[in-house]
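Here is one chain, start to finish.
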Amino acid sequence: MKHNDCFDHNNCNPIVFSADCCKNPQSVPITREQLSQLITLLNSLVSAISAFFANPSNANRLVLLDLFNQFLIFLNSLLPSPEVNFLKQLTQSIIVLLQSPAPNLGQLSTLLQQFYSALAQFFFALDLIPISCNSNVDSATLQLLFNLLIQLINATPGATGPTGPTGPTGPTGTGATGATGPTGATGPTGPTGTGATGATGATGATGPTGPTGPTGATGAGAVIPFASGGPVALATVLGGLANTGALLGFGSSFFPVIVPPGGPITIGPVPPVFDFAFVAPRAGTITSLAGFFSVTVAVALALGSIQIQMQLYSAPAASNTFTPVGTPLLLTPAFSGLIAIGATSSGIIGEAIAVAPQDKILLVVSSTTPGFDIATAITGFASAGITFV
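Its structure:
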């Protein structure tokens, strides 16, 4: 996929497909009838989601629940693939939440944002049946699908922001201070002991001070590596409160995961967030963080730029809630314009993060849009390393 040269034309499609699209080993075969059913379901979801968040009545809840049940039936009609299987998991989680008479709107908003991120990868994997090198969904239909995805995102409120600062302390009360109570009587002094004081023993001679040993060499510390294994998809949404990133492990990864600005990440089943943290076996200090990102899916960015960010998170021994620690690493250069396959970005930064024994350390990679509040998506390999002394 690449961006057209549209500077001197009034009517050109900003997305076209090249033969490189056939090199994608992952695809979702789909008939034209199934594609039409998908578009109809997405149109219905735009209206139902907007209506439910405007008025979360029981009638609107049942309409939305029925549409997601239809969407699950649609997914079951497709051949299994990583994209289809992940969409099924998210759809089932949304159905379970909507089966409650009073679903938690914050949890629903978070699940929907993950659902939208997964839809973007699903759209790119669609191939019309019969499969051939020219069987990709045409650019006009793909543009329609992404327009519907943007409408879904705009119809869904973002997650609740962090709690504001504590207000100022109120003025001291003006009432009179109560009288001080009387001092209690002093108790009698106990009798002095009658036993004889023992003699003080003689002080022993001080031994000679031994020579100071040589200072040992400073240790180089341990290097802990991270790598995504396969490509990870990173996305930003309007408002930035539900941007999605990926957790990096040692040759594996998990995405999408909501990355709230400055907020915590909690490992758990709803929404599903897998454990990719390591446990520190001793106390120490993280002294540096280095990172690298390589684009695997070409994309055209009409406005602004995308910058890859890597952030360390920490949680105490008995907790599954991780909070950001240290300084985030912003890889350079930032990506803009026509972003080609193989484009890279990297960086390194010094840190001074104290780690206690059994602290858990998690590395999260995400994307930002410096100076612009826009929805973006970028896919690629991510790797990193930290120094622990």
